[in-house]
């Protein structure tokens, strides 16, 4: 059973460290990736920190009596977000974290993430243009399968809609069939974007 008193609220700066931890604890397709990273913060530098710093008004957390147990983060204008991500957020990290050398097949997951930090490849193909906003969500096991994921996404979609967004997109790992079905139930549909690792999905908000 999950602890009582679950609630969704806007994220605060003080929530950022625990959201970094949640990112790591769900970083293996929803499973705990703690043992896969020798730098516990590097995954959060990609998937949590930039949203807290660049788009804090589109960050929400799920909290219970034991503390924050999930988050949903998003960007209203993905094109602008990716520009700021590359030109504002990443340079200090690139100066501090080494870009791995050698054969990519030999890299551990920390090195793979560091390579992504040094060589970002954000995607915004023409298929995304009707869906300029994007989001991602992570919940700890105690908050899963209780309807809170749907409520959190609905909270963020409502915020996007109020800010004038016509649509939202997201990515789901190819092997994560349960997540894809979850988003289909929320009204998302597949977008015709070719990618060997990711399903991209969109939903109109207009």
Characterize the biggest β-sheet.
Answer: 7 strands, mixed
Approximate helicity band = 25-40%
- What is the CA-based Rg, rounded? 17 Å
Helical/strand content category: alpha+beta
Order of helices and strands: EHHHEEHHEHEHEE
Number of strands: 7
> How many distinct helices?
7
**Strand arrangement, major sheet:** 1-2-3-4-5-7-6
Strand content: 15-25%
Distance between the termini: 37 Å
Shape: globular
Spans of at least 5 consecutive residues with low confidence: none
Question: What is the averaged pLDDT score?
Answer: 95
List keywords for this structure.
alpha+beta; seven-stranded mixed sheet
Summarize the structure.
With 206 residues, this protein is of the alpha+beta class. It has seven helices and seven strands, in the order E-H-H-H-E-E-H-H-E-H-E-H-E-E.
Describe this protein's structure.
With 206 residues, this protein is of the alpha+beta class. The chain is built from 7 helices and 7 strands; from the N terminus they run βαααββααβαβαββ. It has helices spanning 16-25, 42-47, 49-54, 78-96, 109-118, 148-162, 177-185; strands spanning 7-10, 59-64, 67-75, 133-139, 167-173, 189-190, 198-204. A 7-stranded mixed beta sheet has the order 1-2-3-4-5-7-6, sandwiched between helices. β6 and β7 (198-204) form a beta hairpin. It is globular.
